[in-house]
Amino acid sequence: MDRWGYVILAYGIVWTGIGLYWLSLRMRLKRTRAKLSEVAARKKTGTHA
Amino acid sequence: MATKELKRSRGILGSLTLVFIAVGLYFGLVKAPPDANQGDLQRIMYLHIPSILTAYLSFFIVFVGSCMYLWKREQRDDILARSAAEIGVVFTALTIIEGSIWGRPTWGVWWTWDARLTLTAILLIIFAGYLMLRSLIEDEERGAVAGAVLGIIGFLDIPLIHMSVYWWRTLHQPPSILRPDKAPWENVHPAMLTALALNFVAFMLLYFYLLSLRIRVGESEAKAQRAVLEGTA
Description:
The structure holds two protein chains of two kinds.
Chain A: H1 3-48
Chain B: H1 2-31, H2 45-72, H3 75-107, H4 115-136, H5 140-155, H6 157-167, H7 184-187, H8 190-232
Helix pairs in contact in B: 1-8, 2-3, 2-5, 2-8, 3-4, 3-5, 3-8, 4-5, 4-6
């Protein structure tokens, strides 16, 4: 591998890693929000029942 | 209204981060001149220094959040410390990978048990352990106290990493920027320093954007956990 090959490998790994971490955070936020609204909905039906 | 404004400022921070990342990439990969000895390989520096400094900042925030939690026992300090620890682990792991890629053509090896490299690996292990500890202890309060103690102890590794190149004979070069005897502009070419500064700003903005997102995740998780507990009580 030439010098640019190492540079591209390093930049590629770093920005792919950061991108994947950002995506995982967004997915976790979405999942928790869905869980919260599910609990709220269950609570609401429980109160009315 | 406050939520709307918070969302707007996060959007602005996100956009600004993207702009600085693009500018940083342009300066790091195109505008900055190649190094006299290492040629284009030295361009890895524009990732390597900002990412380790981001990790150091993150663990400093863990240290502050942990001290605050032990003092006041407020959940928001624990969420801050836990969020910062997670992002710190990501940036430390990336720094070690970049360093390894840089080390292969420069030193001839992917890894060596040099003092600075070993202490950085220990930092990664301590904070990966911190995250494991937090997920293993079910009692939130006990987990937060144990995490805070480990977070404070773990932070003490950073001054050791910084000083390791002075205290021991190492393969890793001494600092080029944070030197006690010379100002950065006396030691580094201005075009390289500009590229480094721009990438540093990009990483700082990215860090605070990711931290705000991770704190939001932590707050929502705590809220969901409380709601579930209230529902089962």
